[in-house]
C-alpha cells in the first residue's frame, strides 16, 4: 500500500502575511480537522489590537488595527468620538476605520473603540481602546515647480510655474552656468548625492539674481504661482533656479501648535521648503538613435516640427574632450562616426540658440514593449557550453564553443580563454585554443582539489569579442536515486478531492534497483502565488501591486513503508486557496542505503482560477486618468465578456517624511493615510474596455479592478504630484501592433498605430542594433498602417519602432508631446534545423562497450561531438541539453537605443496663477573636505580550507569525445567504453552543418545481475574509527553465495554472504584511519557465480587541528654550529611538517614576520587584495629569497587579474566584494595600486586603467571620497586637476591634517612644482602622532613616502622611526603594513653588504661544503621526507652567519579551549522541524542542522570569518552545497515565475547576508559583516552518514582585520550508529 503523506497548508486570514507552522507528522495528522483560525504556531493565540489612532492628511480620523475588520458590525455602536458637533460617517476599510466628520483644526477630540469590535478571524480587543486629545493636522510647507523638465521653449516668454503650500515668502536665486562648464555641470547634476551648490557657484557659474518675494497663501491649499525670467535668462547658458522658504516668517504655519515641520538644512535660518530646476531656453528638439554603436541625430523645431539644417554639433566626452564636430544636412540630420560609449553629451548650436542631449538622462524606456531577447547584436556569434551543471574540486571541465560570423570562418582560427575563481583569482590566463572543425571547438580545464567552491568565471576572447560564462565548482555528491513526478501536468479545481490535491512521487535507484523500505523521504516545500500570462495582451498587468502575494513554506518527512517506491503528497486546498493560481515548488530528498540523500527540485502548476482581471494605464492629465481593463481566460488566451467587476480608486497624499521611510506599495491600502476616493461597478467586454477616473487626489492614487466572484484583482498606481518636484508620469507609450505573431520570408507585415492628425511619425526598421530603414511620415488620419515586406535578413526577427511627435504650439495637456512604441517581426526558416538520429543500446554492463550510430534526416554532412554524463549529476542541477539552434536563432533584443529631449520639455506656461515673480540681481557661499581611509588586518588563513592529500574521492563519471566529422550523408559511428559504476548515463550529441544545427540526448542504463554499492567518509581524520558498508542489490534471480574481499592499510578482510532474490544485503567492515596525513585507499572485490566486480575508493587523510608554528633566529660566529634535531618535530603528525631554513651574510631589516604575514594574506575583499598587492610591489627590495620574489610577482599579476575580472564596475569604480556595489574609499586605494604596478612595468589592461582614470576624474570634485588622495593620483598619472588642487590649497590647506598636507604637496611635486612643494614642506613637521583606536594608516610611513617624492631621498630619523614600528609587536592593519613596506623599500633604503660566505651542511653525519649565493641560501623541507634525525649548520667563514629557522606542522595533541574576546559564538543542533537534539550519538541517515550564532560585544566589524570543520561521519546536505549556485535560498523558483514577497514562513537554510561561502567536503568558511548588537545566525544543513566514532572540531570565528575580536568553541566526540 502506498504511504500517504498529508502536508497541511495553514492559511492565516491576516492580509499582510501568511503564517506557517512546523509540526511533526503525528501532530499534523491529529490537527487536520481543526478550523483554519486555530492552525497557528504551537501555543500561539491571535489577538486583536489597535496599532494607532490619528488624523490623516485629508482630515479624517483613522484607527488602525492589527488585522482586517469584520464588516458585518454596526460600527456606530462600537465607536464614539467626543468633541465633535454633528454626525460621523464610519468606513471600514481592510485593517482600519476611517471616520469622517466636521472636524475643526483647533479642537481636541477623543475616540473610544469598544472591546466588542471584531476582526475577520473572530478575535476582539482585550479592553476598550481610548485615545485622548487628537488634533487635526496641518500640511507641511512645500514648494515645487510644476514639473521637473528643463527645456523652456520661446513660446513661454521665459515664464515658468511653481506651486506652494502654506508659504508666505520665498527667496529666488538664479545661477548661470556657462557653456564651457556644461560637462562639469552635468557630472554634478547626475551625482547621486545631488548638486553641490557651492561648487556650482564657485567654479561653474555666477549668481546673477537673488531676491525675496511675499506671496499669497491659502491654508493647506496648493497655490499656483509663476516666475517671469525675461530680464534674467537668455539663450547663452544653462540656468539653475532655486526657490527657498527660509525662517519662520516665510511659512504660514503655527509651529507652537502643530510642532516643527520638515526642514531642508540651513541658510541664515532654517529652510522649511525648497525647489530647484535647471533651465535651457531653446526651441531645438533633438531626436537620436543608436545605429551600429554610433548616433544618428535629427533636429526639429519644437513649435513647427520642421527640420533644423546647418546646426553645429559637438560630441563631448566625460573628460570634456570634443570627440567629433559636424553640421546637420538640409533634412536636419547628422550621422556620427564616434563610438556611442565615449559620448557623454551632444552640444547643439543653431543661430543664437543651443541645447544639450545628455545621453544618460535622455534614454527612451521601451520596457513596456516586447523587446526582450539575446543582447548580442554583433556579426560574430559565440555559443559556449560545458558538459554538466557543476563540478567537484579536482574534476575536469569539458568546454565546447561554436563560432559563427556573417563572413565565412576559417578552421583553426585561434582564441584565448581565462578561468577565474569566485574571489577573482585567475587560475588560467589567456590560454590559446586553435583546433576546430566547421567553427566547432572543444577544450579542457583541470580543476584542483583545493580550488575555491562557488561560481567561477570562464572568459573567452575571440576575434575582438569577449564572452563569459559561470561554471560552478561544488563539493556535492551525485544522486544515486531518481525522483520522478509529473511536472508537465497542469493541476486545477478538478483535481481537488476532499479539499486537497494529491501529487505522486516515485523513487528508484538509477542503477535499476528498488529503493529500500523505510528509506527517509522529506520535502522542503514552498507554495507561491502564480501570475497569469497572456501572449495577446502582454501590455496588461494581471497583478495587484498593493496586495501581498501568497507564499507559504514548510518542511515535512515520512518513510517508504512498502516496496512500491511511491509517496503521495497531499496538499490541502482550503476555500481561501481555491481561487488562487499557485506554484507548488519543493526540494525532495530521499535517503539511500548508505545514509546519503539524493536531491531534486520539482515544480508544479495549479490553476484554480480560469479568469483573471488585467489592467493597462493609457493616459493621465492633471486630476484625470484612464485605464483599459479586461477579463482574461488564461487557458484560451481570450476575453470573457459580460462579467460584473468592481473598481475602486484610492488616494494617499504625499507626506515627504512619512513616504520617504514607508515607500512600500504592498502596504499602500493598509497605510493610515490612504483613503477610498471612489468605487463602482463596470462590465467586462469582448475587447478591452476603458475606465475614466475624473477626480484623482493629490499624491499617490491607486486604481484597482476586482472580480468579486474569484477575488482576483489588478491595479495600477497613478502619481499626481503638485509638489516635491516629481513628474506627472504622463503615459508616452504608443499603441502599436503587428497583424501576425510569425512571418515567412516574403510576407507583408501590417503595423497599426494611432496618432493625432498633423503629427509627424518617425518609422525605423531595426535588427541587431542597426537601422535597416527609416522614414518620416506626416499623419493625416488618426489610425495609421505601415506595410513592410519581410526580407531574408530579418531572420530570426527585426523590430519596427515608431515615434509620433506633435507640435509644441499645438500641444494640449491631455496629449504627450511624443509617443513611442516598438513591435517585433518574428520570422521562421525551417531549413536551418538539423534533425539528429541516435541508434545505440540502452543497457550496458559496468565497464562495458557501447557503439553509437549517428545520422540526420536531412542527410547533411555534419560535425559533431558526443559526451556521456552520470545522470545523478545532471538531475541535481536540471541540466538542459545544449541547443545551438535555439541560441543562434533565438529572438534578438531591440538593441537600437533611442534618445530625445522631448520628455524634458517644460509644460506650457499657465497664466492662471495667484502670484507672479519678476526678476533681475545676485550673490554666493562654500563647502568642506573629508577623507577617512578605512584600513584592515586579516587573521583568517587560506590553509584553513585546504586538505592534505590529492586523492579524487568521487570518480568523474564523464566520457567526452571532441569534435568529429561524419561522412557526406551525415552518418557516423562512435565507440566508447563505459566507466566502472552502477547507474544511468545520459548520452548527448551536438552537431553543426554550416548554418544548420541540432542536438539530441538518450538515456543509457549501466547495471549488472547484482548491484554493488560501497560507501566511506568523504575525508578521514587521524584517530577516526569508521565503518564501510557494502550493499548488494540483486537485479536478477539466483545470485546466491557470494564473497566480498576488502583490502585497506595493508590488511585484508573477507566476508561471505548469501544474496537472496529480491532482497538487498548489507555487509559492514569496521576500520581505523591511518596515523599519518596524506592519502589512502580501500579496494573492494565482489565475487559470485553470476557476476564479479572490483572497485577502489581513494581517500584523503587529514587532522582536525590547525597548523602550529615555530620560528627562531640566531647569529653564528666563525666555527659555531646550529643544530636542528628530528625531535623538534615529534609533536607533529607524520606528513604534516613543512620547514624553511635561511642563511644570510647580513642582518636583515628584521621585518620577515611582517613580510610573511602579507605573503600569507587571504586577499578576499577589495581593500585586502589592494593592500597585499601594494606591499608585493616593494617586497622585491626587502628579500633576496627567489621563491618569495617569484611569489610576489605572481601575486601582483593575480591581483591585477582579480581587479579586472571580478571587481571593476562599468563606471570604472571597484566593488568591495565581487558582485557588490561601488566602495569609493577602497576604490581609490585599488587605483593607487594599479598606478604603481603600471609604473613598475606590470601589465595592467588598458581598458581597466582608462576606466579607472575616468572614474578618478569623475570624483575629483566629490566630498565623500578621500579627495586629496584622488588629486595626488591624478597628478601621478599625468592627468592633474590643477584647479581643484589650487582650491584645496587656497581654502582648506590650513585645516587639513599633516599627512594630507604632505600628500597635497607631493601632488604639486608630481606636476613639476618641486620648488613650491619643498618650500611649503620645509614648514611641516616630519612626524605625526598616530591616533589611538583609529583605523587610519600609519601617518609616519605615509609622510616618509611623500617626503621621498618631494625631496628625492628619505629622512634618516623618520626612516628609523618607521623601521622601529615595523619590527615591533604592535598590531598593525594591512594598510599600515603595506605603507610601511612601501616606505622602507623606497629610494632612501640603504642596501646591505652581501657576502658569499662558506658553511658546512651535515645531515645525519654526511657533510657537504656550500657557499651563500648573493649573500643568502635557503633550504625548504630539508630532510623531512628522508626522516633525517639531525641537521647541523657550521659557519666555516671568518664572518658572522645569520640563521633563520621556521617550520610548521599539525599537532598530535591539541589543547582546545573555549575563548571569547569581544565576540560570542553559540552552537546548537536541531532536527529539520527545528526541535533541539543531542548529536553525540546519531543514527545514519539523520538530517539535522547546526545553528551557529555570533554576536559582537561592541563596535561593528564589516568582515568576519567563521570556520567549521565536520566530523568525518557527518556530511553536508547537498542542498547546503547548492547555496553556492542558487545564491542563498534553496527553495526552487519556477522558470519565468514572478518575484514573490521576500518573507520567511518557516526556517531557512540560507546564510543571512553573507559575502561569500566556501564549502569543501568536510569544512565550510563563511565571510560576513557583523554589527554591534546583531545576532548573525548561520544554519548548516547536515547528514549523519558513516557509522563510527569521530570528533567534532571546534568552531572558530574572528574579525579578519582585528585580532582583538575572536571566539572559539571547542568540539567533542560524536558517534554515528548503523
How much of the polypeptide forms β-strand, as a percent range? 35-45%
Overall strand count: 93
Count of individual helical segments: 22
Head-to-tail CA distance between termini: 27 Å
- By secondary-structure content and strand pairing, the structural class works out as mainly beta
What does the overall shape look like? globular
The amount of helix comes to: 10-25%
Cα-atom radius of gyration? 38 Å
Low-confidence stretches: 1-45, 655-663, 722-730, 920-940, 1330-1337, 1521-1551
- What average pLDDT do the residues reach? 81
Biggest beta sheet summary: 6 strands, mixed
Topology, pairings included?
Elements: E1 3-7, H1 25-30, E2 50-55, E3 61-65, H2 75-78, E4 79-82, E5 89-93, E6 96-100, E7 109-113, E8 129-134, E9 142-145, E10 151-152, E11 159-165, E12 169-178, H3 182-190, H4 197-204, E13 205-214, E14 222-228, E15 237-246, H5 255-258, E16 271-281, E17 284-291, E18 294-301, E19 312-316, E20 322-327, E21 333-335, E22 345-350, E23 353-358, E24 381-386, E25 396-404, E26 415-420, E27 426-433, E28 440-446, E29 454-462, E30 465-473, E31 481-484, E32 490-492, E33 500-509, E34 520-529, E35 551-559, E36 566-572, E37 581-591, E38 597-607, E39 611-621, E40 624-633, E41 638-639, E42 644-652, H6 656-661, E43 675-683, E44 689-693, E45 699-707, E46 712-720, E47 736-738, E48 743-744, E49 748-754, E50 760-767, E51 770-778, E52 783-789, E53 797-805, E54 818-828, E55 836-839, E56 843-844, E57 849-856, E58 863-870, H7 871-877, H8 884-889, E59 898-900, E60 915-918, E61 958-965, E62 972-977, E63 983-993, E64 996-1006, E65 1010-1014, E66 1020-1021, E67 1025-1034, E68 1040-1048, E69 1051-1059, E70 1065-1072, E71 1078-1088, E72 1092-1102, ...
Parallel strand pairs: 1-36, 10-16, 14-60, 32-38, 48-54, 56-64, 66-72, 83-93
Antiparallel strand pairs: 2-3, 3-6, 4-7, 5-6, 7-8, 9-11, 11-14, 12-13, 12-15, 15-16, 17-18, 17-59, 18-21, 19-20, 19-22, 22-23, 24-25, 25-28, 26-27, 26-29, 29-30, 31-33, 33-36, 34-35, 34-37, 37-38, 39-40, 40-41, 40-44, 42-43, 42-45, 45-46, 47-49, 49-52, 50-51, 50-53, 53-54, 55-57, 57-62, 58-61, ...
Helix pairs in contact: 10-11, 10-12, 10-20, 12-13, 12-14, 13-14, 14-16, 16-17, 16-18, 18-19, 18-20, 19-20
